[in-house]
Amino acid sequence: MSSLPPLSPEQLVKPRHFELRMGLIFFTLFVPLGIHLPYFPLWLQAEGFDAEQIAVILAAPMFLRVVTTPLLTALADRASDRAHVYVALMVASVAASAGYFLTPTYAIVLAVSLALSVVWTPHSPIADSLALSGVRRFGSNYASMRKWGSISYLCANLAGGFILSATGAQAVPMIIFVAFGAALVVGLIAPRLGRPRRASPLSAADIQQSAPKLLNAYFLYFSIGVGVITASHAFFYGFVSIYWKSIGIGDQVVGLLWGWGVVAEIGMFMVFTRVFGSFSVVSIMVMAGIGAIMRWIAFPMIWPLGLGISGFFAVQTLHAVSVALVLIGLQKMIGETVAEERTGAAQGIAYFSNGFFTAVVTLMSGPLYDRFGVDGFFAMVPIALVGLVLIGLAARSAPQRRIGR
């Protein structure tokens, strides 16, 4: 393996208030997502789009970004400074999000969503790359910086619900536009660290160089299994807000329900090491898959059984199992079995798997919701089961040493 490029004297100097600046970047970075994920489908429905059209508008950008994001993160790796690329992409995101102010025809909204996806999705891996450079060079604490992203996502869920309860879904494009504007302003203070010594987590250059050594049965079965279990959440992400509104649940409560899932996820992050640290990655992923199956079986039954809003809060607690354990389990698998110099490529391949399968299931979810309504959740059960089978196949082919040496 070739040695890492040397650091210049300037790169050895820690930027002032590095952790604070990165914390602010993560905080503003996740606000648009905290609005877009729960409330963008409500805006689409308010504009008269049917379930199939909503599914296409949500799914098409997912297919596109699994191709474009590695290319743009590779561009950031080669730039004189990743912060410049981050700011440029944020400027493009502000401009693209303004497209939602145009007359919202199906063609225009789809085109704007595709364009926005290209320039929006690389924000997070580039910010991660900057933060991880700080960890390697200056001993910064990644978790203390990244936690502000989770906090802001939760705040956006809650605040969005309160704002929409007063304004209606028509305010969604404006909120997203303002959120990107705030992220751009904060992005201007991003620490300048020069080029990275390692490729960004999703960089095409890293994937191209390292992927051949990762193409073994264990890694592929595990990554695809994780992608399929993750994809079983596509119906939830695309249509749960529309369903909750259809049964009379207000925007404020919708925001609280989304926020409760994030709280449960953060809670799992806090207790994982103490409670699940000794479990194997296969056991962790099996628990995640079972949690997803329980969630999709229970969801359509809450309202008919008269369990009310408290029942939805209870089911949302399973987010800690079906989502948080997947995130933790994947990184645990990579950390235990993939050589350090291959971890970026491993994360990139896992990202591709998650994105591709989620896009496929999102595309299916429109016709499912259009025909079956909330009962479409039952169709997510066999998808999660397929993911569990793949995890089982991965267990049978587990390596005895690190991959990529």
From TrEMBL:
Residue intervals passing through the bilayer: 20-42, 54-76, 83-102, 108-127, 148-165, 171-190, 218-240, 252-272, 279-299, 305-328, 349-369, 375-395
Name one matching Pfam family: MFS_1_like
Can you cite an annotated GO cellular component? plasma membrane
What is the recorded membrane topology of this protein? Multi-pass membrane protein
Q: Which InterPro entries match?
A: HcaT-like (IPR026032), MFS_assoc_dom (IPR024989), MFS_trans_sf (IPR036259)
> What sequence ranges are listed for the domain Major facilitator superfamily associated?
21-379
Which GO-annotated molecular functions does the record name? lactose binding; lactose:proton symporter activity
First and last residue of the signal peptide: none
On the tree of life, the source organism's domain of life is Bacteria
Q: Which UniProt keywords apply?
A: Cell inner membrane, Cell membrane, Membrane, Transmembrane, Transmembrane helix, Transport
Instruction: Quote the subcellular location field of this record.
Output: Cell inner membrane
Output the PANTHER family linked to this UniProt entry.
3-PHENYLPROPIONIC ACID TRANSPORTER-RELATED, BLL5896 PROTEIN
Q: What is this protein called?
A: Putative transporter of 3-phenylpropionic acid
